[in-house]
Amino acid sequence: MDLRAELLKSIWYAFTALDVEKSGKVSKSQLKVLSHNLYTVLCIPHDPVALEEHFRDDDDGPVSSQGYMPYLNKYILDKVEEGAFVKENFDELCWTLTAKKNYKPDRNGNSVVSHQDAFKLWCLFNFLSEDKYPLIMVPDEVEYLLKKICTAMNVELNSCELDDCLSQEPQGQGGLTVWQFLDMVNSGRLLRGIEQEAISMAVEEVYQEVIEDVLKQGYLWKKGQLRRNWSERWFMLKPSALSYYMSEERKEKKGSITLDKHCCVEVLPDRDGKRCMFCVKTSSRTYEMSASDTRQRQEWTLAIQTAIRLQAEGKKSLHKDLKQKRREQREQREQRKAAKEEETQRLKQLQEEKERKLQELELLKEAQRQAEILLQEEEQRRRKQHEEMQRTLEIQLQEAEQARASMQAEMVLKEEEAERQRKRIMELEEMQERLQEALQQEVKARHDEESVRYAQKLKQLMKLKEEQEEYIIKTQLEKQVLKQEMENKNKCLEEAQKQLEEVRVNRLRVDQDVMAAQRKLRQASTNVKHWNVQMNRLMHPIEPGDKRTNMSGGGFAGYAPLMCRRDSSLKLKQKVEDKGSEPVRQSSKENVSNGGSSSSPLPSSDADTMATEASNQ
């Protein structure tokens, strides 16, 4: 802790004491008085111009600590020099301001500590408090300070009583304020049965050790340099020097031994009637001293070695170093505690996570068991469905094969019928040739009488001949197309058989396909029956007709029946073609939609038969 931080702690108490309304602000007039007193006790030259300039009256409102800090740092703390002022006077000024408002001793005079001892305890509290505002002292430092005081009185601190007191005090921000600490000391619970004078001496000793950096003090015998005689002196050891006085009142200082890293202390053997001797060697002189007993010599030598070590390490105060070490230990302890709590929390989370995982695992196992049971039931049900479907498909396949065999038999019959129709076509062609010959003969006979009419009718006959030849050619082409369609239907039949084999593999879709095939088979059978009836109506034996001798209008006798028969034949042919083409188109659509089932060739063969009969007629 540097000098600025120490001074700020005391000034903070003075500033808060001037804040009567506890608003965090102090009037400018009070701050001017406080600043003037600080100039005085810190031995800083007064700067009234800067003081007036900073607190000019253009704003009459009070000033907060943040508003006062710039002036305090620039014009007061930056000018402070260590050793140029008496630190105790500065602390007394701040204590006087804050004690009037906050320190409340027992009005009956039953306080454990006096007002001066309270001031020293206040200084000790400021030294050991944390470097954050508002100032507090953590319980560890409270225990440390009280143990130091009890050790100085050769009594033992009651730790249980201290813990009880600390638990009863409302600790703000993790520690005690100085007023809570003084109230706890004045309550007498910790220092019960001890006289006030002993407490005062112990507080003074601890104050000198901690605040004034007195490592050790007491009477020693010192050997003179010139006269070489032994004189008893009061020695006071600080980290920088070992001073000695005429008496313990320290009114007359006789000398001082400056200590540095080159000094050392050695134990000397007894001589000249003196015992428990030791010496302090500096770079310029050796100082011989004698203690009252061996214990005192050991304490003094250890204390002097500690002072030399502090000088070698460049440290000015032992207790500042010890305080920093204790603070680091507390921080490490808190870090370990936090790490332990974090580890405990993490282990707890891991345990909870583990339990949750185990619960999830149990749920998963239960779900897996349920799934296995459902899977087994589903497998059994599917196996049964598969067996039933396989049996159904086998029956349907047998029925389809029987239908195919019947369809093949019907195809053979249709082919025989087509052969008969071809023979009839040939007979019709021969009849046509004979009719043409008769027509030529009739034309030659009637050429003289009806030359003009004959020429016209000859043209009509020639035209009719061309139409008949075109019709015959068209009939032959349709016959070829029907044959090609029959071959295509046979191929479709083979594809249907392949699809029936694929049905065995596709068990889920075969039922619908077979039912569709059955429906189409029934429809095809219905169509076959229907067309058989139609064919029976249309198919009558065609015999050569007798020539009529009667002539209408004096024309050729066989010409009118021939034209009438031709017109009726053309109408019948057109009607049969219209009726035959409709089943063919329907069969083609069903063949495309159903992948060429076994019932599709039937309409084509019926159409072929009907077309042949129409040609024969």
UniProtKB/TrEMBL annotation:
SMART domains: PH. Residues 213-309 form the PH domain. PROSITE patterns: PH_DOMAIN. GO terms for cellular component: cytosol; nucleoplasm. InterPro entries: EF-hand-dom_pair, EF-hand_SWAP70_N, PH-like_dom_sf, PH_domain, PH_SWAP70. Residues 589-605 have a biased composition (Low complexity). Transmembrane segments: none annotated. This is DEF6 guanine nucleotide exchange factor. It comes from Coturnix japonica.
